[in-house]
Amino acid sequence: MASDRAKPCELDQEKYDADDNVKIICLGDSAVGKSKLMERFLMDGFRPQQLSTYALTLYKHTAMVDGKTILVDFWDTAGQERFQSMHASYYYKAHACIMVFDVQRKVTYKNLSTWYTELREFRPEIPCILVANKIDADIKMTQKSFSFARKFSLPLYFVSAADGTNVVKLFNDAIRLAVSYKHNSRDFMDEVLQELEVGQAEMLGGLKKTASLQRDVERKPVGGTCSLCLRPWKCQSHAGQIQGQASPTALSTEL
């Protein structure tokens, strides 16, 4: 998968309407290694640090998926994860999520349920990849089974930002899932946003037309029904879309 060196960019949510753009977000507790994983994949070098991310960073990346050039926006947190919550705009029109925990800190694994609940509140159906980071510190963790991944049918990756284990595969698969989701999206919120945009356009057009009419023209009320009907949604499993990814249930010790 070809790529250019990524670099921080200013936020521009208007670009997410383009067919060749996808947005991928990272979630997880502070200091689990989200930023370091991005640096390992996107940058030439890797600088191990123990500092949290204090500013939202948007990295631009160019990838090739099925022979087509895709522009990828990777979103890294603004330190909000320290408060166990992210601003709603962080989730806005995201096409995939990478959720990270630290195999050395059990509390980061326990907090996954909080992050996952919030993710599904804003993005009910986007693909989500579960990531067990820092396996270089304890390789035996790869022999454990994590029930959270099995419970929600999430693909599980054992990775290391320090030595690069599985990092490239993780991000390449995330990009492919994001592209697949965008082209086959049935997300309820996407439908709502689309309906609102159409409704606003029609309203503005109607106002312009009304302004051009004579003031003494009789106007009769118009009745009708909304074409958008509320419907329940279900979390879809995207694990089967990734080729060569072992099921987390095949591992031995359960957490």
From TrEMBL:
Gene Ontology, cellular component aspect: cilium; endomembrane system
Protein location: Endomembrane system
Pfam families: Ras
CDD domains in alphabetical order: RabL2
Membrane topology designation: Lipid-anchor
Keywords: GTP-binding, Lipoprotein, Nucleotide-binding, Prenylation
Upper taxonomic lineage: Eukaryota, Metazoa, Chordata, Craniata, Vertebrata
GO biological process: cilium assembly; microtubule-based movement
Full protein name: (raccoon dog) hypothetical protein
